[in-house]
Amino acid sequence: MHPRSLALLARKGIPTTGLHSKSLDAIDMAPDVVITVCDSAAGETCTAYLEGTMRAHWG
User: Fold this and answer.
1) Element at 35 (helix H, strand E)
2) What is the value of pTM for the model shown?
3) Residues with Cβ < 8 Å from 20, sequence gap 6 or more?
4) Mean pLDDT of 11-32
5) Residue 52's closest CA among 38, 34, 35?
6) How many C-alpha atoms does 34 have within 13 Å on its Cβ side?
7) Are 53 and 33 in contact (CB under 8 A)?
C-alpha cells in the first residue's frame, strides 16, 4: 500500500495491520462502482467480471 495512504489511515486511527493490495480474483464480491484514475486506463475494456458495474473515470 502507498505510504501516504497508510499515514492517513494512521492519523485517523484506523488500524492497518495485515492490509494489502488484492487482485479482483481475490475478492468474493463484485464492486458497486469502479473508478479509474489514470489517463491510460480510460476507455480500456473491463473484464467480464465487471460487466454491469457502474464505471467512472477521473483523469
Assistant:
1) strand 33-36
2) 0.43
3) 1
4) 84
5) 34
6) 20
7) yes
| Cα Rg, the chain, nearest whole Å | 14
Helices then strands, each counted (H, E), the chain: 1, 2
Amino acid at residue number 26: A
CB of 28 closer than 8 Å to CB of 47? no
Look at residue 37 in the predicted model and tell me its pLDDT: 72
Residue found by looking up cell 491510460 in the block? 40
- The Cα 34–Cα 46 span in angstroms is 10
In the chain, how long is the greatest CA-to-CA distance? Answer: 37
The enclosing H or E element of 10 equals helix 3-11
Contact between 8 and 29 under an 8 Å Cβ cutoff? The reply is: no
Residue range 33-47: mean pLDDT, rounded: 67
